[in-house]
Write a structure and sequence with these properties.
By secondary structure, this protein is an alpha/beta fold. The protein contains 11 helices and 16 strands. It folds into 2 domains: 69 residues, no CATH class; 226 residues, Spore Coat Polysaccharide Biosynthesis Protein SpsA, Chain A, CATH 3.90.550.10. Strands 6, 7, 8, 9, 10, 11, 12, 13, 14, 15 and 16 form an 11-stranded mixed β-sheet that branches. A 3-stranded mixed β-sheet has the order 1-3-4, covered by helices on one side. The model has no long low-confidence stretch (mean pLDDT 93).
Length: 409
């Protein structure tokens, strides 16, 4: 079976006249489609994928197709900026320095943000004895304890901002990213955390396209939301644009946000104890730390927000073996996270007994929402790898805790 062809990724702001889109690729095979993030004055309205016939999308076709695909969203206006001043913000990026070129691009974007008062802290998470690094315009600190959570907690200890924002070294941030997060905090003082939109930086390889089809894609939608607890095991999700509400399981954590684009009131995150250092990349659990802290804040009665105007562009894994390791890691991290919260509060066990079978079924059911975007080309082994990861998660968490205690000794 043939692999999917490369897809041109572009951002078009319809507040400006729409121009012809050049879809020429500098190598073979040529682009077969264009994936377009459509914005108005920097605020995303939606995404559209258009098939290509040749190497250019004429302006008139672009406008016609985008209008048709977006429907009512085309006329959505940019929201008014918050009146309250933006709080000083600390941006923390943990890194093992394994992706130096991506890190340089990330740092370059972070030093050019549209925000009046912020600092950037890069946490070098390599083992002791490695040579130090200097990066222009940012502060670099060391954390030799392994794992992204230990690195984030070091950033939390160093932060001087009222708000602390986290991203990863494989993303490029939109210039308005930090302002959009800050404006949401300023407009809603009751929010403890705000997460943002993560979109693909490129879709050049089959692995990157399969990631978007996997049901683990990073796009959380284009409408501003709030989340709050609505009973012991339930969450109320409210759409700020039309006021509609949806009640669902506390453990449907995927739409809450991701570690590559999340921010907290610093005092709230410190009071919660920061991130669980037995969870996350660089530990046996390989993930789950971001969802764990968001879920715990909700369970404690805090309110969270999702702000699609805070955009970061993520570079997906380029090869199938790397993608399979990532998908397997997502499975490990997810059930490791559930194990962690259940050990801290055994009442979660009762809530989880009803939803775990549904999650496992969603991995196998062709009609499930998780598998809705998969084409016939999607490798079945990826789903099987994620399921194996889910089965390994609980023991991985226990192993990670033993290692954590050894590091602390």
């Amino acid at each position: 079976m043939s692999s999917p062809g490369p897809i041109r990724v572009a951002v078009i702001d319809i507040a400006e006249p729409i121009a012809e889109l050049d879809c020429t690729r500098d190598r073979q095979p040529p682009y077969v489609a264009a994936w377009i993030l459509v914005c108005r004055e920097g605020r995303p309205l939606g995404s559209v994928e258009l098939p290509l016939e040749g190497t250019r999308l004429p302006a008139d076709r672009l406008e016609r197709e985008l209008r048709s695909s977006l429907g009512d969203a085309w006329d959505r206006k940019a929201k008014a900026a918050a009146v309250a001043p933006l709080a000083r913000t600390s941006v923390v990026v943990p890194t093992a320095m394994s992706r130096p070129e991506q890190l340089r691009r990330c740092v370059r974007g972070l030093t050019e943000l549209d925000h009046p008062d912020y600092e950037v802290i890069i946490v070098d998470n390599r083992p002791a004895g490695m040579p130090g690094v200097a990066l222009p315009g940012v502060r670099v600190v060391r954390e030799t304890r392994p794992g992204i959570s230990a690195a984030r907690n070091r950033g939390l200890a160093e932060a001087t901002g009222e708000v602390i924002a986290f991203t990863d070294d494989d993303v490029e941030v939109d210039r308005r990213w930090l302002r959009a997060l800050g404006e949401r905090f300023a407009a809603a003082p009751e929010l403890a955390a705000v997460t943002g939109l993560v979109v693909p930086a490129e879709l050049e390889t089959p692995a990157q396209i399969f990631f978007e089809q996997s049901g683990n894609g990073l796009d959380r939608g284009y409408r501003a939301l709030t989340f709050e607890r609505a009973g012991r095991f339930r969450i109320r999700r409210r759409d700020l644009e039309d006021g509609s509400e949806l009640i669902h399981s506390l453990y449907q954590t995927g739409e809450l946000g991701l570690g590559s684009n999340m921010a907290f009131r610093t005092s709230v995150l410190r009071a919660a104890g920061g991130f669980d250092e037995a969870l996350g990349t660089g530990t046996p659990t390989r993930g789950g730390e971001d969802l764990a802290i968001l879920l715990e804040l909700l369970a404690a009665g805090h309110r969270l927000g999702y702000e699609p105007g805070a955009i970061v562009h993520h570079t997906h894994r380029e090869t199938i073996p790397d993608l399979e390791r990532q998908i397997h890691g997502y499975g490990v991290g997810f059930t490791a996270m559930l194990t962690a919260i259940s050990l801290r509060d055994p009442r979660h066990i009762a809530g989880l007994t009803s939803v775990l079978p549904l999650w496992v079924r969603s991995l196998r059911d062709p009609g499930s929402a998780k598998r809705a975007n998969r084409t016939e080309q999607y490798p079945g082994e990826l789903g099987a790898s994620e399921l194996r990861g889910m089965l390994a998660g609980p023991s991985a968490y226990l192993r990670a805790r033993r290692l954590q205690r050894r590091w602390a000794a």
